[in-house]
Structures are given as structure tokens and as C-alpha cells.
């Protein structure tokens, strides 16, 4: 073998030369793999259904994206986390479930368990006063807890294009929400 043989650059060397950290490349590879797995999972699920309208999958994905944004911004708390947050000395999962059943907090079923959006709790862990009234109004209007949460976290003309969730502490918030809920479209 010739002592003047050319060394092949390593991947790390080429990444460094291009100004890309190995961790960044690994993250991109991970994201690509996740997207491919998601695409395959969605395709498998849809293949078991009868003909699906083209916009259906986009609507489902938009809703899932909304749930991810809600979780990222406010947290989607598990029942034990709710118990700790409200200051229970016994962090038992039944506390959140009982509060949800009594219409005191909003809980949404996601992946066969109930999760509780963090926006309904104040900095002190207390449930914001508007929540109980919003739940009562939503139930009267035939809205599910999930519909209420998605509406609260989306821009609304009733709030001049801002999100209702950003007005939970306003005096007239519940009154405006009720007027939206009872409007026939």
C-alpha cells in the first residue's frame, strides 16, 4: 500500500466543515424517521376505513396539531399532576376525575385517559372561576369538553380575533362565550 494514500474524510469531519453539529444531524434523522412512521401509521389506519374524503385527513391532522399546541403552551396534565397542583395532600388520581365529573374542571379523553389543560388553573393552583360556568354553558349547548377546549384555544371573532383562553379572567368572558355557544350557525 502506498504511504501517500488519500484519507477519506469522516462524516464528522464533513459535518464540521459544513458547520453542522452531529447532534443536529441526528435530530433531523430522528424527525424524518418519526414522520415516516407517522405516515405509515396513518396510512394503515385509513386503509381500514371505507372511502375517506380527501379533506378528512387534513382536518384530523389539524385537530391533532391543535392538541399538540395546547400541550406545548399550557400542558395537558395527568390526574396525579392535577392533585399536586391544587395542593392535595394525597395526590390521588380520583381527585381530578371527581372534579371533572362534578363539572369543576375540564378534562378531555386522549389516548384512553383523561388529561386536564393547564390553562384552567391559576398560578396558585386554584381553578379559575370562569371554568365551572363555561362547563355549565357548554353542556347546556351540547358541547363536549374537547370542543370547549379547542374553541377556547382558537382565535375567535367574539374576542376580536384573539383566543378566548386569553380572556379567562375577564369579567364578561363567560357572557360572551355563552352567546357564541347558543348561536345557531
Question: Summary?
Answer:
The longest helix is centred in the first third of the chain and has 26 residues, at 22-47. This protein has a 3-stranded antiparallel β-sheet with strand order 1-3-2. The protein is built from 8 helices and 3 strands; from the N terminus they run αααβααββααα.
Folded structure, characterized:
The protein has 185 residues and is mostly helical. The chain has two domains: 8-46; 76-181, no CATH class. Helix content is 54%, strand content 5%. It is built from eight helices and three strands. It has helices spanning 11-18, 22-47, 54-74, 79-85, 93-101, 130-140, 145-152, 173-181; strands spanning 76-77, 108-110, 113-117. Strands 1-3-2 form a three-stranded antiparallel β-sheet. Strand 2 (108-110) and strand 3 (113-117) form a beta hairpin. Helix 4 (79-85) crosses helix 5 (93-101) and helix 6 packs parallel to helix 8. The longest helix has 26 residues, at 22-47. The chain is elongated and about 80 Å long. The mean pLDDT is 88.
Instruction: Give the SSE string.
Output: HHHEHHEEHHH
Shape: elongated
Percentage of residues in DSSP E strands? 5-15%
Averaged pLDDT, please?
A: 88
Number of strands: 3
Number of domains: 2
Please outline the major beta sheet.
Answer: 3 strands, antiparallel
Q: What topology does this entry show?
A:
Elements: H1 11-18, H2 22-47, H3 54-74, E1 76-77, H4 79-85, H5 93-101, E2 108-110, E3 113-117, H6 130-140, H7 145-152, H8 173-181
Antiparallel strand pairs: 1-3, 2-3
What descriptive keywords fit this protein?
185 residues; 2 domains; mainly alpha; 5% strand; three-stranded antiparallel sheet; 54% helix
Amino acid at each position: 500500500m502506498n504511504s501517500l494514500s488519500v484519507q477519506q474524510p469522516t462524516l464528522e469531519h464533513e459535518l464540521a466543515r459544513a458547520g453542522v453539529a452531529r447532534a443536529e444531524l441526528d435530530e433531523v434523522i430522528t424527525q424524518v424517521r418519526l414522520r415516516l412512521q407517522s405516515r405509515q401509521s396513518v396510512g394503515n389506519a385509513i386503509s381500514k376505513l371505507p372511502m375517506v374524503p380527501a379533506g378528512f385527513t387534513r382536518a384530523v391532522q389539524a385537530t391533532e396539531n391543535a392538541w399538540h399546541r395546547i400541550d406545548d403552551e399550557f400542558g395537558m396534565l395527568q390526574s396525579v399532576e392535577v392533585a399536586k397542583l391544587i395542593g392535595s395532600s394525597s395526590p390521588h388520581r380520583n381527585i381530578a376525575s371527581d372534579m371533572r365529573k362534578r363539572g369543576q374542571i375540564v378534562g378531555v379523553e386522549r389516548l384512553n385517559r383523561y388529561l386536564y389543560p393547564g390553562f384552567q388553573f391559576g398560578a396558585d393552583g386554584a381553578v379559575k372561576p370562569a371554568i365551572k360556568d363555561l362547563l355549565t354553558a357548554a353542556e347546556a349547548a351540547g358541547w363536549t369538553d374537547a370542543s370547549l377546549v379547542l374553541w377556547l384555544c382558537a382565535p375567535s371573532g367574539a374576542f376580536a380575533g384573539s383566543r378566548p383562553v386569553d380572556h379567562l379572567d375577564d369579567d364578561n368572558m363567560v357572557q360572551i362565550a355563552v352567546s357564541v355557544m347558543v348561536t345557531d350557525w
